[in-house]
Write a structure and sequence with these properties.
Distance between the termini: 51 Å
Radius of gyration: 23 Å
Number of helices: 14
Shape: elongated
Strand content: 5-15%
Number of strands: 8
Structural class: alpha/beta
Length: 312
């Protein structure tokens, strides 16, 4: 009995809440952002403070969570595409990470945020190198102009399906971000507009028409350093494609899928200028099944999606 009591005394029971900040940060760095936001930061006050450490907030990548939610989604609800409540949740999360990063944020990959959070990124993240904000209907030229001036180290930009962003933003990014090598500017299919209505409100696309040749001109004139360009379903014509091929001679990867205003001859002529080109995705005939699969992400706002990780 005495021996057991002695052993019990010699065993020290450690309280995880009393771990040093350095130890906690080391442990939490091994968790995904989902695990930190859904669990770790609610354990106790010291864990919450550790989750705010700049070393844990240099990256915010929610793409896997969005893709998983889309995959598991089953109902179509285009009316929820511009859901402001959900958008505020994403903005709140992004803004928290920006503040906690203390200027160290260099990688952002999110969807469905607005000018509020992107403006804060521009103001406080001078080291930003990757910005992916596809499917953000309320991000505008005004805020992208702030990104151009505030984030000169940008090397990758994805503004796909953001219809309030125009060729003006593309020009500014090209002028102020000399390190930009990857641009993704994919749009909606226009082959059969009636087929996209279940996935995204038609009035949104109609309100913000895109000028494919103007965007192509901005790319060709101000983004000579590009090595990868995606402009799926752009309305550019032979004129725009020629401007890109003349201005972006270092392109290695070019995606023209769905660009139905350019012909095979146009593409062949443009390709002759691109000596470094390794992969070229040409326009092809679309089918309804492939589009249903491709644009199923507009199912994002079903009830199931707004629970789980994104209930913040």
């Amino acid at each position: 009995m005495a021996e057991e009591e002695e052993k019990t005394k010699s065993v020290q029971i450690h309280n995880w809440a009393e771990l040093t900040q350095l130890c906690l940060v080391n442990i939490l760095s091994r968790l995904s952002i989902e695990d930190r936001w859904r669990g770790a930061m609610f354990v106790c006050k010291s864990w919450l403070q550790a989750c705010k450490d700049p070393n844990l907030n240099s990256v915010i990548d929610l793409e896997a969570q969005f893709i998983e939610s889309v995959t598991e989604s089953s109902s179509l609800s285009s009316s929820r595409y511009c859901n402001r409540e959900f958008e505020r949740k994403i903005d709140s999360m992004v803004q928290s990470v920006v503040i906690w990063s203390d200027g160290s944020l260099n990688f952002v990959r999110v969807r469905h945020c607005s000018d509020r959070s992107i403006a804060l990124i521009a103001e406080r993240s001078p080291n930003l190198q990757v910005l992916s904000i596809q499917r953000c209907p309320h991000v505008t030229d005004e805020t992208i102009a702030k990104i151009a001036s505030g984030c000169p180290l940008l090397r990758e930009l994805d503004i796909s399906f953001c219809y309030q962003i125009s060729h003006k933003s593309i020009a500014l990014i090209g002028q102020h971000c000399p390190n930009l090598q990857i641009l993704r500017r994919n749009l909606m299919t226009q082959v059969n507009p009636s087929q996209q209505e279940p996935f995204v409100p038609r009035e949104y696309v109609d309100t913000c028409p895109q000028d494919g040749d103007s965007e192509a001109a901005a790319i060709g004139k101000f983004m000579a350093q590009l090595v990868q360009l995606e402009i799926q379903f752009s309305k550019l014509t032979n004129k725009g494609l020629a401007l890109i091929s003349e201005g972006c001679i270092n392109l290695e990867h070019l995606d023209l899928f769905g660009c139905t205003n350019v012909t095979s001859r146009d593409i062949a002529n443009a390709s002759s200028n691109l000596k470094q080109l390794k992969t070229l995705k040409k326009p092809t005939q679309l089918c309804l099944e492939s589009q249903t699969e491709r644009y199923g992400h507009w199912q994002l706002y079903d009830d199931r999606f707004q629970t789980d990780f994104f209930r913040i």
